[in-house]
Amino acid sequence: MQTPLDIAHSAMEAAPDDGALSLKYYERLADAELFLMLEEEARDDSARPLVFETAEGRFALVFDREERLAEFVSSPTPFVAMSGRRIAGILAGEGIGLGVNLGAPSSMLLEPHAVDWLHSALGAKSVQTEARAVEFQPPAGLPESLIEAFDTKLANMSGVAAAAYLTAVRYDDGRRGHMMALIDVPEAARAGVAEAFAEALQFSGIEAGELDVAFLEPDDPRLDALVKTGLGFEIPELILPKAPQPLAPGMDPDNPPKLR
Hints:
Blueprint: H1 4-14, H2 19-31, E1 33-37, E2 51-54, E3 57-63, H3 66-72, E4 79-83, H4 84-91, E5 97-100, E6 108-110, H5 112-121, E7 133-137, H6 144-155, E8 163-171, E9 176-183, H7 190-202, E10 212-216, H8 223-229, E11 231-233
Parallel strand pairs: 3-5, 9-10
Antiparallel strand pairs: 1-3, 1-4, 2-3, 5-6, 7-8, 8-9, 8-11
């Protein structure tokens, strides 16, 4: 089965002149959980990537499936699982590139400058505004790829937001734009959520693109207008595992009562 990184890589290779597809690949790489090969077993919060010296430069190796790493190496090798964005942060500025899924169809070598660029792109920040929204309209003129990127971000926000609506907006200072309104997001999570949408816009390829992110309470009086005019997104419900319940003697099918 193809991984999201495989799909993004295949699309990018099929249209090498399409910059938007290249950006989408980098976004999938940042979001993916990757298995990073290490020099030795990780200790506490310390992990030293295993760096290979090649004619093309120095590279750390990552795989988006544990079995791909196992197929690549000939002996047991320590590794750690972490997101692509964290790995980019570790390698940025060190002159180390990234070998991704070597030996797999989505094999790729990212040179050090590409890793540095990815890290800088992931530093996109949202801009706060004091203007107040006074009119909402259906969103218009946004590329489908950006809508899909928002959908992907929201699909990973189970338990963080109750609902999300994308809308065109007019502010009391006359400015117009687009807003992503998120409902019932805890205060502690808001900065990270805003940065996630700033990243999605950064990787969209839209020059001078701008999106406002608003956090509303479930009883906000503007919510009715948002529901009527905005594009709603499905956010999967957070399903927590059920706590184990004690069973009466003899009722556990894996542990039947002993007969005397």
